[in-house]
Amino acid sequence: MSKAAKPCIGVLAIQGDYAAHAQALAEAGAEPCEVRQPEELAGLDGLVLPGGESTTMLKFLEKRHFFKALQDFCRTMPVFGTCAGSILLAREVRSPAQRSLGLLDAVVERNAYGRQIDSSIETAETSLPGGPLEMVFIRAPRIVEIGPGVEALAYREGYPTLVRQGMVMAATFHPELSADRRVHRMFVEIAAGIRAV
Ligand code: GLN
Asked: Out of 21, 83, 109, 184, which one is annotated catalytic?
């Protein structure tokens, strides 16, 4: 397959469920690769920031002088943040406030649905073609505000759970843990340039 047909997508592999993302990306038609240092961003067509613990990822990024390089990459290339990754992407993080990349015009509230025990699997309508979408929430954040340039593709209790702002995608749930590959396929298409704006 040519490079255009199979985009090379990195997965930030510091902590969290990056292996499940790599698998999901491969199933969605991409060539995944794990990224642990700034140099590994070179040549990628896109990047996934996985779920896990945003505070831990943030500490690592700051300690390894990786924050700025990541921000620069994500300003110009497709990026998809899921759960903790969506927290990293947001313009503003609440409860508690923490530093973020500021690439998604959204305000995100951490652990908004309660503790680990309150994690759940929901099925909801989505504007993605193909019918309702399963969404796995694990100590999930809630997107409480989005800017005018942000499109919401699915909701939970009236709050967006899947959003897109140009080349930036974010989900407050874990699409990599469901069998449905529509969400990853959408990102792979953006990275392949098919849907890039
Ligand atoms: N609660 C985590 C955080 O605040 C996110 C949980 C997840 O990614 N599943 O970073």
From this structure: 83
